[in-house]
Amino acid sequence: MTLHESKHAGYTDLGRLQHFLGETDTFQPGGPPPNSPAAPGSVPPPGMPPAGGSPAVPSVMPSVVPPMPPQSASRLSQRLLYKHADLGPLRSDPDRRPPTGEDDCFDQLARFAESEPWSGPASARLGGVPGSVGRDELWVLREYVEWTFERLHQQRQVLTSPDGAYSLFNTGLATAQQETIYGLFVPNRNPDGAPWQLAGWYPESERRLPDHFPELPGFATYTESPGDFVYDWRRELTVNPKHLLESQENLGSLPDPLRSNPYQASLVLEGAVRRAEARARRSYRAAVPCWDPAAERVQLLLPLALTTPETVDVALVVSREGETYRGNTVLGLDMAYARARQIARPEEWLSAK
Predict the structure, then answer these.
(1) What is the pLDDT of residues 179-203, one digit of tens each?
(2) pLDDT tens-digit profile of 277-288?
(3) Distance CA 227, CA 77 (A)
(4) What backbone torsions phi and psi does residue 77 show, to the nearest 5 degrees?
(5) Quick one: DSSP state of residue 80?
(6) Which residues are bridge partners to 329 per DSSP?
(7) Coil, strand or helix: which one is 111?
(8) 215: DSSP letter
(9) What is the torsion angle, in degrees rounded to the nearest 10, for the CA atoms of residue 269, residue 270, residue 275 and residue 279?
(10) Spatial separation of the C-alpha atoms in residues 205 and 176, rounded to whole Å
(11) Which of 16, 33, 224, 239 has the fewest Cβ atoms surrounding its Cβ within 10 A?
């Protein structure tokens, strides 16, 4: 490891999140206009399939839904998932929440998918997520689905059926029986809303999905080189603790005793980085891959134990630059877990247990 002056990456932790809050290109998904005529029949409400049977894929458009209140400054109005479709009332939306005691589509997805700790690491659950709106016990799942849809749209994997009656994407999640789960949309008849609305979450075994899609959409991918997911101990790791702590976001991620003493924090970080590098040499699993949506690249998370040898307090974000690694960002375990979950369910030190 080399310790010397280094240049900050273009985004702080908050900046990466603001990548999804700021302006995006206008999203114009394919498919029929929102007010195209519907065939006779009825549409089941969004959510889990009924117990004891396979869900029925709707064959018609849903009834008109109430328009979503204006949210020009909200996260929801900026992310492509909500420009593509109306997902119904959301607990994370302060302007349009479901009635008390009722579930939203993410609650239904969490129950349908195999069990995961969607509230993030237990050690970080009392903290907040910078820039998030309405954090709740499923905030990791919401972030995961939103970012996955963003990536799939970029890769042209949000498909419209040949007859223009459906839109479909691969959530990347699985049921307890390890069936892939898809999000299915039907046209939204509300002319003031998004082009589509969510019809529900469906497993790959649903027979009628192939009836409308000759080929089901694939998983989101994040790199063409599998080597990006593994820490290469032959590459030099460069970290400048003093420069790293010039960022208020980085400093604010540290445990309380170190936030008020940047000099002590830099000394502690220097030793912690060396130990983390040695840990990654001993076990490749110690370096956890994560996704940086702003830079659109895979990075690695190294565990930093700053208070006791047994406790990982924060994660060092390591980026490959040429033939070296550079660490310029520190993340709290909650945000680190969400970034890592975008690629795969985190293991070992970043476990939510």
Answers:
(1) 999 999 999 999 999 999 999 999 9
(2) 999 999 988 999
(3) 36
(4) -75, -15
(5) H
(6) 317
(7) helix
(8) S
(9) 80
(10) 13
(11) 224
